[in-house]
Amino acid sequence: MLNKNISALGVALILTLAVSVPAVAQEGKAMSMNDLLRQVEQGRVSDNKENKAREARFAQAKSEQQKLLNETKREKSGLENRSQTLEQDFETNDQAIADLTETLNQRLGSLKELFGVMQQVSGDAQARFESSLTSIQYPGRGQFLEALAKKIGSSAKLPSLDEIERLWFELQREMTESGRVVRISTNVIMADGQEAETEVVRVGAFNIITDGKYLKFEPLTGNVSELPRQPEQSRFVNSTSDLFNLDSGMVQFGLDPTRGGVLASLIQVPNLQERIQQGGLVGYLIISIGIIGLLIALERMVVLGLASRKVTAQLASDAARKDNALGRVLSVA
What we know:
The chain is of the alpha+beta class. The protein has helices at about 1-110, 110-130, 140-155, 160-175, 235-245, 260-265, 270-315, 325-330; strands spanning about 180-190, 195-205, 205-210, 215-220, 225.
């Protein structure tokens, strides 16, 4: 009886556990679904807020872009109107300039040809002065002549009376200085590259020298420098010393009328040593053969001279002498 009750109690306990476990599982499942539903609902609300904020930003950006577009269109319209106004002003001014130019040409008359000649003379004088040795004493003339030529060529302004007189003065001074021999001091670049103030003599517009040396003038830089080498002909170099040390009177001088062209050719002429070096081995062989031939010729001249003297002495003597060919022939006879 007791065993039956225990068995019944165990069966009841097992049934109770079996019923309670599904109930707990169903309750947990229901809680998870509720949480999921709540999270989905919250996410949807958050997405709606973000979308509305994004739409608001887009609407604001669209409004700003539309505002910028309207401002750009207004600015474009204003610039187009200004462009039309400027074009009209340009055409008006261009026509006014043409009318004034025509009036100026009519009033100038023959003076226009005169100013054209002045412009040409100014340009030619500028090129001549820049390469002239007189620029060492009178620098800055090229800038004045260049400005004068541009002023005349622009037709906007006429040269003043002072400018015309200065042009005449510069031309006259150049002609006068071209015939003078003057002593001046200027910076000279030596052959070793050092620069020093040196007393020089300018011979018109042709040459510039110092004691025993010809000098060279560089028009592009305005520098005076020694020639790389002096002419080999001593008469030219000596004439520079004679002229440099001359106080008064006249002296012979090696003048280069080409203003440096002849000197450039003379300094390229090789001297004797350079000619021998240019000949190389063949040149040395020819010189050696020539020296040997010269020695042989000298030896023959000495021998024949002695023999001639002995023969002459034999002719003057009655006794035969064996120190000469004639005496030996006479002694045999």
